[in-house]
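Q&A log
Question type: sequence-to-structure
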Amino acid sequence: MIAEVIVDVAAYPIDRPFDYIVPQVIESIIEPGVRVKVPFGRRNVLGYVTRLKNESELEIDKLKEIDELIDLEPVLSKELLELSKWLAVQTLSYEIDALQVMLPAAMRAKYEKFIVVNEPEQIESEDFSRFIAGRKRVSMKEAIEFDFLRVLKKYAAEGIITVDTTVGQKTAVKKERMIRIGKKSELQRILESLHVNARKQTELIQWMIENEGQTLRAKQLFELTNIQPSVLKAVIERGAAIEEYVEVYREPEAPGMKDVAIPEQLTDEQQVALAQLSTSIKSGKAETFLLHGVTGSGKTEVYLRSIQEVLAKGQDAIVLVPEISLTPQMTSRFKARFGPLVAVMHSALSAGEKYDEWRKIHRGEVKVVVGARSAIFAPFENVGIIILDEEHESTYKQEDTPRYHARDVAIRRAEYYGCPVILGSATPSLESYARASKGVYTLLTLMKRARNQQLPEVNIVDMREELRTGNRSMFSVPLAEAIRKRLEANEQIVLFLNKRGFSAFVLCRDCGTVVECPNCDISLTYHRAHERLKCHYCGHEENVPLACPECTSEHIRFFGTGTQKVEEEIAKLFPVARVLRMDVDTTRQKGSHERLLRQFSEGKADILLGTQMIAKGLDFPNITLVGVLAADTTLHLADFRAAEKTFQLMTQVSGRAGRHDLPGEVFIQTYTPDHYAIELAKEQHYEPFYKHEMLARRQFGYPPFYFVTLVQFSHEDLLKVADFAEKGARYLKENLSQETVIIGPTAAAISRVNNRYRYQCLLKYKKEPKLTEALQQLIKLYKTNWMKSGLVMTVDVEPTSIY
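Response status: OK
Response body:
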């Protein structure tokens, strides 16, 4: 028997299956989808069996044998193996990358090199001889740490030692020590045989007699009996109990968020939407639904009831949310409804927790998975529904290889299983809404809030006028007054600013110098907490200068506003207010999202201040005021989606107010109040915005009227990157049809990141049959010739941003 194996080596010539002989001892148990260890070159590597066959095109004596079978059951189903091939083609990536993205990081290979001593008597070096000290096998890492690299090279060349590579898994299965107490008669016999001085053992045996036959954790036994481990070890040796190690799961901490009550009755709109979804679930036909509902219209309840139907059929459900910050509340809601049938998968979990959640899904111990983008690859084999909440979010697109979009993967998996996909949003992406308008997706609408409350009253504040009246604060007079009223009434407030840090940049008032990152063409952001300047692109940090680095003037000032500065300003204006700040800086630690949101849900804070992680999905009954401190942050980016992203953010964050019994109010502060994205966000009218934006997209030839692909080049040498970008653009022009528009090559909006200069080409096309082939050939050219010179080239089909 021959196995086709994709090996764990991401390189262009190796991106194909390799044939290996299946040893006779594992012929009866090996299956496609299992992991194996195989010899590849001079070392052993991890591999994935994708196919089994009886013959090979190569001569049998040239084939190597599989070294070891890692899994008894496939970790990748037939469907996921097929999906990986499709994903590799769609994203122009290696098949090994497509396979590995489907598994938790803990299951990827951990390679470790060891030195095997073949002829210890030939070793002349006394230091090395002492280091080995009779060992036949030592860690290469340990030998290098002791500075034996030169000695190793010499002995390896002479064959005295050889280097062996072991392949392991990054995270092991967690096991817990359990103690099974014996029968009373045996314990009585042991008690009688104990020496009179063995008092602690006597006490433990007496306790065991009272608890005969029980099995409990060793930790628990120590707590109950207050004995030392040595005492337990002694009685186990006498046969009083049996010690065993049992596999246990690392359980992620339950969010424990307060949730709203389950509605007794659905609204008419919810019932209509649910009826259509129910028909699709029963029919077993793949269908994509766009659930367009205003904020607070009860989309989550529609998801929950659809899942109930799917579970009643004995099928599984996948629910995706775009931000980790949404996961705690969504998880609480799903666990309240479906209990232990829910697994959670997102990046805030430890590697071990992710691995254990994955194993629960793989073993069929849960029926619903709630998680971020990667949860789309949950190893269910009977999927009945896939849901993407806030489907418009750019976080559903993977920024690293393979650059997949979770929506496309969801639709592909749904076609395989014949099940519906729900794309839910109050502000759908233009591409999704256009598809729904053409009938490619089925449009379901919820235009009223679930409890028939009014949408919050939205006020646009022109900050130019505030400046003219002498108000230089980041809080306009109307917003400050509204905050005071809510604080007096013990109601909660959400303040949104999509900029972390204290100030956007540091500027010299004498010569105009802005302190920039030495590695990137971007200004450094001032963080007050640690008195540091930080680059949010490459991570560079430095102290705040006391004088201008150019003219040595002391007139250094901080300009712009970040969440830290807002927090300080709130403390001055509203000293009684209890504030929680939620941004990347305050949510670095594990469990911090859950902790902050739990505190806010329990009323332990009056104001929740944060970046876009608080803009959507949160549902707290006491929030009556939302303040957007700077609506222009995303509006003037060099991106054709800037207006769309601004409208979506404004609408989403406005929807956090007045979702329950108390009426809501929103203040949007802006310097461009007459921009259509701001004006239409005030009314929360999606249709007029969609029509207006579509006219602009048609005029300038952007999605959804055209498809786009971004080809980006980066190099440490500016002249070289410009030259390679020119060669790449010329190659594409020669190999693509004339209908495809190639913009560039041109410098990227941020032209240097981490000391690498960036150039890019943007391809715009309606139909381009040669696109995949031309891009594959360009990638081949890059990987065989250009890559050696230090160039990095990336190809992103349908990017979410182009700067």
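Response note: Residues 718-735 form the longest helix (18 residues).
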